[in-house]
């Protein structure tokens, strides 16, 4: 899950978002169909390069932009788009468990570090005891954010911290800061009102920030980071669709696309080609662990 926080993105009704998709969602994906892919951040230049690379391979792609994270998975479930590419495995697992769906990963893209940003201090040391830090409120990114804050010695988690940690797990007596959870697209706009904020990569640059501005972040190269690999997701019945698999390959093999992903992430992304079998195993484990927490 990767990028820029807009102050107030106008969230159009889903029907309006999809109105311009020529031919609607592709059917089981012959190369003659328009394949619609839902993303958060369609203005990133590499999507234009991706569409061209797909066209060169005989596949017409329509990139459907969504304002925030809760929208692309329901759209995929309802068949309003064919694929989406915006989330990591932990987010996908939480959606599947919460909604009793079975969306499936069909290819890996990258792991993005999750960063802490501030317009008031230059380093974590500048954050004072009692200050407030904003974090995304969706469960998967909330837990990951708390782990970043703990690593930065801003909070202490009672159980040491897991991918399921919540605000209730913060040991407030031992923690340096208070934590406020907001919609992911709003943490950047909260910066004038808080000491610092965890901002998803999708929203960093749109908030006028650079990835290098992060005063703390997690490590995408950590071997334990597999659940945070971003993926292309499809409906379970379409996971073996040859056209969709080809689109994953194009994303992974196009140098122009890969260079574009790195450029948009400020060089922070770790590009990956994790085997689908490993993604499926990771998803199954995280879904099992998530269900146990519900």
Description:
- It is a single chain.
- This protein is α/β, with parallel strands linked by helices and 294 residues long.
- The chain contains 8 helices and 13 strands.
- Mean pLDDT is 89; it is low at 1-32.
- It has helices at 14-18, 46-56, 72-77, 89-99, 139-151, 242-253, 255-264, 276-293; strands at residues 3-4, 34-39, 60-65, 83-88, 104-111, 115-117, 132-136, 178-182, 196-199, 202-203, 216-217, 229-234, 270-271.
- The chain has 2 domains: 35-112 and 224-292, Periplasmic binding protein-like II (D-Maltodextrin-Binding Protein, domain 2, 3-Layer(aba) Sandwich), CATH 3.40.190.10; 115-217, 3-Layer(aba) Sandwich (D-Maltodextrin-Binding Protein, domain 2), CATH 3.40.190.10.
- The strands form 3 sheets. Strands 3-2-4-12-5-13 form a 6-stranded mixed sheet, with helices on both faces. The protein has a 5-stranded mixed sheet with strand order 8-7-9-6-11, with helices on one face. A two-stranded parallel ribbon has the order 1-10.
- The protein is globular, with a radius of gyration of 19 Å.
- 29% of the residues lie in helices and 19% in strands.
- The relative contact order is 0.22.
- Helix 5 links the parallel strand 7 (132-136) and strand 8 (178-182).
- Residues 1-24 form the signal peptide.
- Pfam families: Lipoprotein_9.
- Belongs to the NlpA lipoprotein family.
């Amino acid at each position: 899950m990767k990028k820029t926080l807009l102050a107030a993105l106008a969230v159009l009704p889903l029907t309006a978002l999809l109105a311009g998709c020529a031919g609607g969602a592709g059917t089981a994906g012959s190369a003659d169909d328009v394949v619609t892919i839902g993303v958060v951040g369609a203005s990133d230049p590499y999507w234009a390069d991706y569409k061209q690379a797909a066209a060169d391979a005989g596949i017409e792609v329509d990139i459907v932009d969504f304002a925030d994270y809760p929208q692309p998975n329901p759209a995929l479930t309802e068949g309003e788009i064919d694929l989406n590419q915006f989330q990591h495995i932990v987010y996908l697992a939480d959606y599947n468990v919460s909604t009793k769906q079975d969306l499936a990963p069909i290819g890996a893209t990258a792991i993005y570090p999750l960063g802490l940003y501030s317009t008031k201090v230059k380093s974590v040391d500048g954050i004072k005891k009692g200050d407030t830090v904003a974090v995304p409120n969706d469960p998967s990114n909330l837990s990951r954010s708390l782990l970043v804050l703990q690593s930065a010695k801003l909070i202490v988690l009672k159980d040491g911290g897991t991918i399921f940690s919540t605000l209730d797990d913060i040991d407030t007596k031992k923690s340096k800061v208070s934590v406020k959870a907001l919609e992911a697209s709003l943490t950047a706009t909260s910066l004038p009102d808080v000491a610092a904020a965890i901002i998803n990569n999708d929203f960093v640059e749109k908030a006028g920030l650079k990835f290098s501005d992060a005063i703390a972040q997690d490590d995408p190269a950590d071997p334990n980071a597999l659940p945070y690999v971003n993926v292309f997701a499809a409906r379970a019945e379409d996971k073996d669709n040859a056209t969709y698999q080809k689109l994953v390959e194009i994303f992974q093999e196009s140098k122009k696309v890969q260079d574009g992903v790195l450029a948009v992430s400020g060089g922070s992304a770790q590009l990956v080609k994790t085997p689908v079998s490993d993604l499926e195993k990771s998803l199954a484990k995280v879904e099992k662990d998530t269900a146990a927490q519900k």
